[in-house]
């Protein structure tokens, strides 16, 4: 369990009575309101229920029916959960921060036209880190003034695209400054900028997803902050909106975010003393979610309250007028809304060792287990509440021994053809999917009130050949 930093404590808010089998622990009761105001603390989408036949339902749609209609693997996204998380962030910011605020969706967590349109309709902004994410945001209807372009190695083309649409650019390093000072002068208005720096905050999450400590590829080193701020003060093409820092991902502690406020307020004071108006403070994302019952993340309210109060206090202590507070949730905004459906196929029993059951997807649609040893919770869609018959290792269909989605998970007999539902896959699954072994990427359906809408089409094997070219001397002889 290296993917999380939470103590291995019992989840609060779930009845321990009746000791449900491990696989469904924490999913009970399957009804909205387990914590509908902070879906990141739930294992399943907030609309999850069980129908009269005992089959799992999300967004009013029976998951077995979705699997039959749209095929598997299938990403299912619950609209009600997505809207609930967006609203939780907005409302908490309005409640706990005495100044203006904006939550930006870190779209790398799951980028699509539909998700963009949905978060835009909830009044959020969006982070993009590439031309692809930026185009998705623009075409999905996100107002450009609510888009921020990140990236530690932005190309000139990506920066051109951002400038063409007046998107805010986060300066990550001197290369960004160099490119912009070539392409930005002479435009109608100065480029709106945030400066990202590494705040030197340690937090205990997986090593790969820590970004706020000093040995990080992201952002200006603290000792470069003053030089870059001084440099920008002399650039007429530059307008410094504010500062940015992001300390990591899947974080369960609140203290690092509290500490971050002080570091950022110091930087804000410095920037303003150098003549920058600096109206924005962007504290990044990182709030964790519950993947397995023992995970115990803070609520969205607690996280926002901690950040908001810490920023307000730190500014007050330094005599700084309140900046607009920006934050950038990715995982905690979309993960819990997602459920992936697979069909169970072959089985291999190794007596005395383990029983493998294989599903029709794996590391290509969810690379998190093989990348971060991440754990997930899963049930059989037709009998989510049934007692476990034993422990099974659910393996993917890829040519890697490490392609194991769920090592040792308690389930009822996963028979051939059964539909397996894996929870909390709305973030960093579809967006990290690959075509390894030339396996087409799954479709995504958005469910709401009993209706399902395909928002990302399933790839077809033939489509994977689209970019292949055969040079003349290798043409097969017919
Ligand atoms: C990844 C990232 C986020 C979102 O992180 P989550 O842990 O998914 O909330 C926000 N800001 C930046 C700069 C990021 O790189």
Question: Low-confidence runs (pLDDT<50, min 5 residues)?
Answer: 1-26
Return the CATH class of the largest domain.
Mainly Beta
Structural class by helix and strand composition? alpha/beta
Report the CATH superfamily of the largest domain: Lyase, Ornithine Decarboxylase, Chain A, domain 1
Number of helices: 11
Helix content: 25-40%
* Average predicted confidence as pLDDT: 91
Give the CA-CA distance, first to last residue.
55 Å
CATH overall fold name of the largest domain: Lyase, Ornithine Decarboxylase, Chain A, domain 1
| Count of individual beta strands | 20
Largest sheet: 9 strands, mixed
CATH architecture of the largest domain: Beta Barrel
The number of domains is 2
Strand content: 15-25%
Bound molecules: pyridoxal-5'-phosphate
> Using only CA atoms, what is the Rg?
23 Å
Net shape: globular
Describe the structure.
- This protein has helices spanning 63-70, 79-96, 113-121, 131-139, 156-164, 174-183, 222-233, 255-273, 300-317, 331-334, 368-372; strands at 49-50, 56-58, 61-62, 74-78, 101-106, 125-128, 147-149, 168-171, 191-196, 238-244, 280-282, 324-327, 338-350, 354-359, 378-380, 390-395, 404-411, 419-423, 443-448, 451-456.
- Helices cover 25% and strands 21% of the residues.
- The chain contains eleven helices and 20 strands.
- It has two domains: 2-77 and 337-463, Lyase, Ornithine Decarboxylase, Chain A, domain 1, CATH 2.40.37.10; 150-329, Alanine racemase (TIM Barrel, Alpha-Beta Barrel), CATH 3.20.20.
- It is an alpha/beta fold.
- The model is unreliable at 1-26 (pLDDT under 50).
- The structure holds pyridoxal-5'-phosphate (PLP).
- Pyridoxal-5'-phosphate binds at residues 106, 108-109, 127, 150, 246, 249, 284-287, 328-332.
